[in-house]
Amino acid sequence: MFHRHPLLAPVKTQHIIRELEEAARQLGWAVRTERGSFQGGRCIVNGEPLIMLNRYHPPERHLAVLAESLRDLPVDTVYLKPAVRAALEAAWRDRDRAAAGVEAEVEDE
Q1: How far is CA 84 from CA 15, 53, 89, in A?
Q2: Separation CA 40–CA 32 (nearest Å)
Q3: What is the pLDDT of residues 37-85, one digit of tens each?
Q4: Phi and psi (nearest 5°) for 45?
């Protein structure tokens, strides 16, 4: 899960989420929050790029879904406040560590 960097303490998760949603919109992706039994992420609906967030998930999960959705998009072309960029990069590192842990477990079996 997302671990807050000490320098990010004053920035609330909800604020980071709003900033990342705006960055996604600037990159041409709509963001919607809906109810349902889905994990969330990028998809194409009626030819339109869309990032779906599950209303039932906590803000930390929304941040993780947005971070993963933005991962291979040109986020360096939009302005992100330093604290928001740091949170995005921290979420990517957390995801990479989790993925590496899963791969190590599979290799051990």
Answers
A1: 9, 18, 9
A2: 10
A3: 999 999 999 999 999 999 999 999 999 999 999 999 999 999 999 999 9
A4: -120, 120
